[in-house]
């Protein structure tokens, strides 16, 4: 383009990977996207709510989080419980609660949420303890479906993403137990969804503001970016569940700066690198980090409001002893900082052995799942199961066809989608790996578990769905990309189109798939693309994977939900010795 030629908004939008001015999703496609979302929400509700009251007692870390949640709602801070309170609590006897503050190593928001369910259904009800985690699991499925719909515009892929998450064993088991990590999955995914919305709005506004200008002008700097601010708020909520959310916040911050830089480069803005790093990078930081920090501190409101909470009065004690520390801070903030230093020391020093501890190298293949529940026959009430030995077990095993296929999809996504095709959408999935998986390698010597994967299982599913979308032809090229231009040229030359073979990669052509044009297929209102663009071999692969995942879910459902089965049945499901 001539440097003196004013650019149209249309041309700028194409450069920024946006659809033409005035484009909108077809109503039929939009409607079916919501239908697909509703269906997977129903599946998620069934897999997470049916039999939620079993087991009837506190299991695994529920012995901490449930009682802490009750203490928060009644004392205003986590408190010490008398010995033997676990058994009394499930009977509705809360007499073991004291007013002595307890040293707790996670922020309070997750326990407030668990306690909210107890307010609705009662503190003596297992449904009360587990309802909010179950709701979080359902909402995560819904949110993943909507994110996938926004990225791919395919109701089929949106439904596929929601379905695979709805029937995943990690997602199911941890939505049915009162733990904290499922809330990280929800708020973390919401943060990424909001980041995608900000990317769309920022680029659309950039194209509109630069319309009629020539290359080399300064790009306007938007002072307020509402979607980015909302992403910071959601990231703050994620950190308010567990500190691991801070790594996701860092990954998001890097990604939004890179997205801004590439946008400025594509519109040939003046001093795009310096402008992107110094101006927009600073504004991105201010939208995300201070917002998340304020939200995080605000979620300690109850701790601030109750003088009996743990570490309250520490600064005053130091001053009275003549050894003040950080005297420049207000006492309440000084107390909270000291509390956080104690929490950090606990986390980095946690190295006690546990039979189900697992290094992150095996997480992506579910090498060492976590056993949440294994009661004695007496605790089960001596049930019958048609065998000499009956057991109940809850083991957080992911849906293996999904997890193992996702490893291949991850490699495909990094090499083909991210590197070769420069498809920005794959980074939406990769940010989950970067922010919620890779940081655990920094804590190699810590006692950590595979069940932490529930925080990033939505991204495991998303990378798989994007890869399947690519091989089926359902993932259309990004507007303005090299792939989009090449496809337009082939269409104009009548080399692809109705009645002709769909565009395929060199590898697919080598395997002999280029000679099979699709004449009949899923209607465009469901697939999101014309029938001619889809590939039969891709549909076959997708169908086989879905069938395998559904069969696995049906067979492993009793192991995910603690049903009474024979020992032989359970042992048959332990495919590897590492699962036992």
State the gist of this model.
By secondary structure, the protein is mainly alpha-helical. 58% of the residues lie in helices and 4% in strands.
Q: What can you tell me about this protein's structure?
A:
With 580 residues, this protein is mainly alpha-helical. Helix content is 58%, strand content 4%. The relative contact order is 0.11. α9 packs antiparallel against α10. The strands form three sheets. It has a two-stranded antiparallel sheet with strand order 1-2. A two-stranded antiparallel sheet has the order 3-5. A two-stranded antiparallel ribbon has the order 4-6. The model has no long low-confidence stretch (mean pLDDT 91).
Which features characterize this protein?
single chain, 580 residues, mainly alpha, two-stranded antiparallel sheet, globular
Topology, element by element:
Blueprint: H1 9-15, H2 27-49, H3 62-75, E1 79-81, H4 85-90, E2 97-101, H5 109-121, H6 126-152, H7 155-166, H8 169-175, H9 181-210, H10 226-239, H11 245-266, H12 272-298, H13 301-305, H14 314-320, H15 331-348, E3 370-373, H16 377-380, E4 390-392, E5 394-396, H17 400-420, H18 425-436, H19 457-472, H20 482-492, H21 506-510, H22 524-527, H23 536-561, E6 564-566, H24 567-573
Antiparallel strand pairs: 1-2, 3-5, 4-6
Helix pairs in contact: 1-9, 2-6, 2-7, 3-5, 5-6, 6-7, 6-8, 6-9, 6-19, 7-19, 8-23, 9-10, 9-11, 10-11, 10-12, 11-12, 11-18, 17-18, 17-19, 17-23, 18-19, 19-23
């Amino acid at each position: 383009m001539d440097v003196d030629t004013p650019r149209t908004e249309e041309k700028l939008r194409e450069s920024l990977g946006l659809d033409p001015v005035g484009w909108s999703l077809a109503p039929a496609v939009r409607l079916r996207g919501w239908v697909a979302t509703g269906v997977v929400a129903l599946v998620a509700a069934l897999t997470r709510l049916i039999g939620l009251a079993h087991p009837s007692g506190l299991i695994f870390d529920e012995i901490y989080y449930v009682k802490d949640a009750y203490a928060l709602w009644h004392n205003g801070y986590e408190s010490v419980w008398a010995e033997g309170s676990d058994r009394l609590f499930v009977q509705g006897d809360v007499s073991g609660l004291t007013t002595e503050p307890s040293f707790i190593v996670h922020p309070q928001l997750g326990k407030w949420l668990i306690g909210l369910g107890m307010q609705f259904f009662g503190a003596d009800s297992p449904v009360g303890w587990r309802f909010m985690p179950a709701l979080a699991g359902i909402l995560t499925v819904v949110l993943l479906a909507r994110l996938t719909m926004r990225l791919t515009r395919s109701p089929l892929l949106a439904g596929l993403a929601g379905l695979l998450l709805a029937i995943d064993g990690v997602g199911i088991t941890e939505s049915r137990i009162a733990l904290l990590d499922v809330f990280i999955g929800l708020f973390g995914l919401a943060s990424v969804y909001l980041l995608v919305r900000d990317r769309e709005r920022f680029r659309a506004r950039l194209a509109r503001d630069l319309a009629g200008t020539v290359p080399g002008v300064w790009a306007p700097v938007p002072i307020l970016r509402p979607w980015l601010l909302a992403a910071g708020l959601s990231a703050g909520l994620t950190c308010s569940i567990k500190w691991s959310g801070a790594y996701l916040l860092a990954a998001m911050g890097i990604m939004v700066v890179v997205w801004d830089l590439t946008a400025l480069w594509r519109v040939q803005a003046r001093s795009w690198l310096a402008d992107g790093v110094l101006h927009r990078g600073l504004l991105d930081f201010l939208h995300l980090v201070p917002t998340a920090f304020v939200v995080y501190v605000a979620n300690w409101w109850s701790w601030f409001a109750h003088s009996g909470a743990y570490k309250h009065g520490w600064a005053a004690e130091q001053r009275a002893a003549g050894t003040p520390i950080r005297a420049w801070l207000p006492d309440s903030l000084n107390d909270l900082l000291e509390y956080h230093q104690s929490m950090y020391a606990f986390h980095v020093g946690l190295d006690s052995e546990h039979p189900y501890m697992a290094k992150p190298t095996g997480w992506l293949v579910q090498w060492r799942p976590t056993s949440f529940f294994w009661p004695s026959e007496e605790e089960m009430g001596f049930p019958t199961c048609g065998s000499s030995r009956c057991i109940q077990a809850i083991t957080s095993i992911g849906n293996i066809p999904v997890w193992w296929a996702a490893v291949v999809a991850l490699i495909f996504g990094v090499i083909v989608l991210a590197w070769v095709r420069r498809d920005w959408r794959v980074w939406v999935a990769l940010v989950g790996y970067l922010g919620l998986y890779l940081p655990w390698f920094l804590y190699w010597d810590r006692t950590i578990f595979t069940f932490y994967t529930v925080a990033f299982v939505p991204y495991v599913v998303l990378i798989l769905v994007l890869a399947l979308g690519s091989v089926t032809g359902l993932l259309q090229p990004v507007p303005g990309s090299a792939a989009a231009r090449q496809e337009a040229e082939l269409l104009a030359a009548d080399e692809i189109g109705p009645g002709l073979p769909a565009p395929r990669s060199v590898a697919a052509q080598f395997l002999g798939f280029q000679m099979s044009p699709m004449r009949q297929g899923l209607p465009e209102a469901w697939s999101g693309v014309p029938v001619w663009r889809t590939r039969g071999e891709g549909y076959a692969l997708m169908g086989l994977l879905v069938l395998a995942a559904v069969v696995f879910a049906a067979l492993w459902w009793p192991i995910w939900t603690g049903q009474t089965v024979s020992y032989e049945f359970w042992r048959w499901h332990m495919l590897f010795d590492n699962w036992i």
